[in-house]
Amino acid sequence: MSFVSLHSHSPFSFLDGASNIEELVNRAAELDMPALAITDHDNVCAAVKFYNAAREAGVKPIQGVEITLEGGFHLTLLARSPRGYAAICSLLTRSHLDNPRGEPAVAFSGLEELKEVIVLSGCRQGEINQLILQSQYRKACQRAQEYLEILGRENFYIEMQGGCLPGDSFLNRRLLELAQHLDIEMVASSNVHYACHQDFIIHDLLTCIRTLTRVQDIHPRRPLNGENYLKPIPELKKIFVDFPGAVENTKRIAEECQGVFHNNQVHLPSYSDRRGETPGQMLSRLTFEGATSRYGRINGRVRERLEREIEVIEKLGFADYFLVVGDVARYARSRGIRYAGRGSAADSLVVYCLYISEVDSLQRGLLFERFMSPERKGLPDIDIDFESRYRDEVIDYVYRRYGEDRVARVATYNTFQARSAVRNLGKALGFTEAELGHIVKRLPHTHADKLRQVLSTLPELKNSPLQEGRFQLLLEISERIAGFPRFLGTHLGGVVISSVPLLNLTPLQKSALGPIITQFDKDDVEELGLAKLDLLPLRTLGVISDAARYIKESGQEFDYGTIPLDDQSSYEMINQGDTIGVFQLESPAQRSLQAHFNARHMEDMVASMALIRPGPIKGNMVEPYIARRHGQEEIKYLHPRLKPILEKTYGVVLFQEQVIEIATAIAGFSAGEADRLRRVMTHARSEKVMQEIGAEFIEQAQNNGVDGDLAREIFACIRGYASYGFCEAHAAAFATTSFKTAYMLKHYPVQYYTAILNNQPMGFYPPYIICSEAQRRGIAILGPDVNASDTDFKTEGKAIRVGLKQVRGISCNELRHIAEERSRGVFVSPLEFMERSRINRDVMENLIKCGALDSLYKNRRQMLMEVPVWIEELQNKSQGEQLLFKNHPGGQVHDFKNWEKEAWERAILGLDINSHFMARMREELRRRHIYSSKEVKKLPAGKMVQIAGTLFRPHRPPTRSGKIVVFFSLVDEFGLIDVSLFEDLYMQYGDFIFGEQIAPLLVKGRIQRRGNGVSIMARKISFLQ
Amino acid sequence: MSKSDKLKVQSTEFNKPVFIEIEEQVIKIENILESWHDTGCWWEGESEKAFYRVYCQDGGIREIFRDLSSGQWFLYRVYD
Asked: What is the fold of A767-909?
């Protein structure tokens, strides 16, 4: 006798499944279940992961779903075949799209369309069960008869549940009676919500989270017991002893259900506008037209490379995909929408010639095989960044052009992390919000299963209440639900375009933000054979467009496309580490690198993109790279064949493309074999796989005439570097944008910083630091003014005027009214401004406090006092009384002091307009021998100093040794100074950095100089008293 | 539930109750009307229980439960 669980919930039942998919299939295998069905609530999100995990565990996967019918009744559906799965997808799509978001419901009549689907009558929330429990047996029989008629006798089963709940005996007896009366087959079910009995607690707590209750509360959805686990046969025999055939039927149904996914089937989009050409012919024509436009004349190298690439693309059947991506790029160009291709696609010359990317892969010597090869499985994936404000317009075009039924955004799964797990489970366990808030804000952003590890290693957590015994259960369960999905989100830019209607492959549903999404994430859509296109929003492109417009508005000539990539003054600025606001070069690590890297040309920029990544930093390869670059370390090549490959990176394997080239040159690997080696190395596969491919490399290298020991040494070398290698094409794509933004900052700082301020949030630094940087460069920041400011920030000669949108609390409507009114004439008094702009009292007060009405009246305190009087006057006027206009408020009081005004400005605008609050302390700080960031930069290396400032962006990047090094910046009235702190001192002072910030920090440390860069190596940290 | 009275019960090998002993009288269970499991307040350390609503030979309907961790039987409720 065997049993198959045909009704099981995974974590994708969203807070109603307490064991992960692997735990479920492994337990099913342990119990000798030949098959297992996953039936999550109203979705099939788990389908691909379940399919793979079950097959690996030797368990047959059955794909099902527990749908919600109109009226809230549940029904269990199992796909007999791919057709049955498509029917389920279609039904789910309608249930989601035809109802309010989050309330899917299937109309009973909709069941008629289910073909090749087995239907079980459902759990206690099933309609028939509910009627029986309400003592409406006759009606239950009627409804069962209707289910039979709509579904067919061979497709409908009465689901007997062994949940050990009060009323089960009665319910199952009546169900037996009903089944016998109507001659319907019965089937046993455990309504599984977790793999093992002891996981009940997790399920109960997840239910509390779902129902917003605490464990102490009573709620009808709370499970009464822990019986919803995968039960062994003896237990099932005992439970279903009176229902012969119910257990056996599980196996029979399982045998009837086949796999729902066709292996290796792809559904690439087709480009329909081909005018009689094959996809390959059209791709070839458009590519060569593009090549002519790019190069003027197509030489032999270009032709040969393009023909080779097109041949591979055609052979793999991807020509349509390239045509579609090229079409999307062409649309953006036609609409003047700025975009830039990124990622490994830039390894393709076809991509360059189709104007998808600006990286000339031939000129850069990039390998097409890194992106695509005939031996490589998997679909192409091209990423394009678009100016963020127009990105959705591009996606709308894709929907229109390729059909709303064939295009959808890709989902993401928002999962439990340390903070969310502790907060949500803590609430369920009855801990107070205040207590949890205090705990959670000190936790780092990490995985929930790392909680105990961070508690034992991070000094700022050594006094965390989580260390107390009463939180042990919370910690334990938090770790168990690590990675469980909480809800479906929308991938930032992933769009799938299919050749067939998507609802044959995935249910579709509404996302919180509006777009229709698949029920699968980016990895799963690829496994379903769907091509994904990443259409990403990038605010930097908006900055470029805005800055270009401001430059032209100022009467200067400017063309972004012709920015000289060898502009030495821009390199000089970069070499000072003076790059706050520059794309990809503004982080402390990048600024520090640039300050001693001495970049001179684009190759240096490309290398910079790849160097400051977790891998190279962790691999301690940054310093050797620089030392070799500066001639302080000899460049050696293990084999002469490596020289042409590694010369441009000083003998260091920096790029993934180099791994492929080395494998080809040394071991004679084919392009596909070499790319497989690259993927094994960069995806941290198992040691076994690594050894296998290593043995292959060494053997083939020997066959290729390379000495065995040397081959081993070369393999060890590329293995050491390649795990953190970076895609050169991607680095090159970013490097161009990076340098061009540096050029714009160098030559047009007012326009560039204004554009950054108008495209917030973006980049590494908030507006107050951008403004402070602008001020450091001599650009005045002018406060908001109702008669001078626009909604946005704007340039005023060599100054930047703060936009009114920066005022806290102001609404779009109020901004529009102000703009409209001012276009009719300037405001002449605060009262007249208040009347014409129709702003509310809070906003009026904020405008006064931050100085936006100073040009109308000088005394902010006086104006604040008059606001209630003005409101009364305006109300009287609206009731027909005459408004007693005064040009200025009457009665005199002393205005706020300057420090009070500055405090208001900081609070309301988030900016320091006239003076940073630390400037007021400067005299006192100087007396105490505490330096400013400006002074420190003039002092010699090695000097011990004290410096004070507000903490900015503390972080702990990974290191090769595994030891912790903390980096943060201190901000004062002159800008930033970067500080680093080693592990021993971090253990002592970590709480000052990662704990609550109650005052500016006082750091004592030694000055470090690297090239043009200055930083502090901290020795002691405290709050500034 | 902690106030429930301890009870002597004779049961089958599957722990189904057959006889209960009340005030030194052994009463046969004629029929198990309903049974269910209840984990109770697990967060307070309470253990899981198997409940039975039984029809006894003396005509009484009682709810009894077995504490699954200790194996001890208790009388939970008597229906008038």
From this structure: DNA polymerase; domain 1 (1.10.150)
Which residues on adjacent β-strands are paired with residue A189?
A161
Q: What is the pLDDT of residue B1?
A: 46
Interface predicted TM-score of the whole assembly (ipTM), two decimals:
0.91
Segment A139-170, tens digit of pLDDT: 999 999 999 999 999 999 999 988 899 999 89
**Where do the structural domains in chain A lie, given as residue ranges?**
11-256, 279-409+489-540, 417-482, 566-737, 767-909, 917-1023
Pick A166's closest partner by Cβ from B36, B41, B42. B36
Rounded CA-CA distance A94/A103 in Å is 12
CB contact under 8 A, A224 and B51: no
Q: What topology is assigned to A11-256 in CATH?
A: TIM Barrel (3.20.20)
If 0-12 CB within 10 Å is exposed, 13-18 middle and 19+ buried, where does residue A596 land?
A: middle
CB contact under 8 A, A215 and B43: yes
What does the alpha-carbon distance between residue A438 and residue A423 come to, in Å, rounded to a whole number?
10
How far is it, in rounded angstroms, from Cα A142 to Cα A161? 21
CA distance B44 to chain A (A): 10
Name residue A274's beta-bridge partners.
Answer: none
**Domain ranges across chain B:** 5-79
Q: Which fold has domain A917-1023?
A: OB fold (Dihydrolipoamide Acetyltransferase, E2P) (2.40.50)
pTM: 0.88
Instruction: Give CA torsion, residues A89, A95, A99, A101, to 10 deg.
Output: -50
CA-to-CA distance for A746 and A756, rounded, in angstroms?
14
Average pLDDT over residues A383-402: 96
Site from B33, B39, B49 to mutate, A interface, most A CB atoms within 10 angstroms: B39
Pick A170's closest partner by Cβ from B34, B37, B42: B34
The minimum CA-CA distance between B36 and chain A, rounded to whole Å, is 4
A238 → closest Cβ in B14, B38, B39: B14
Q: Do B37 and A167 touch (CB under 8 A)?
A: no
- Range name among A396-405, A474-483, A580-589, A881-890 with the lowest pLDDT average: A881-890
Specify whether the CB–CB gap between A187 and A245 falls below 8 A: no
Report how many helices (DSSP H) and strands (DSSP E) chain B contains, helices first.
0, 6
The nearest CA of chain B is from the CA of A731 a distance in Å of 53
Minimal-distance CA residue of chain B relative to A234: B14
Which residues in chain A are closer than 8 Å to B51, comparing Cβ atoms? Answer: 166
Q: Between A and B, how many residue pairs show a Cβ–Cβ distance under 8 A?
A: 45
Spell out which residues of chain A touch residue B35, defining contact as CB-CB under 8 Å. Answer: 164, 168-169
| pLDDT for B2 beyond 50 | no
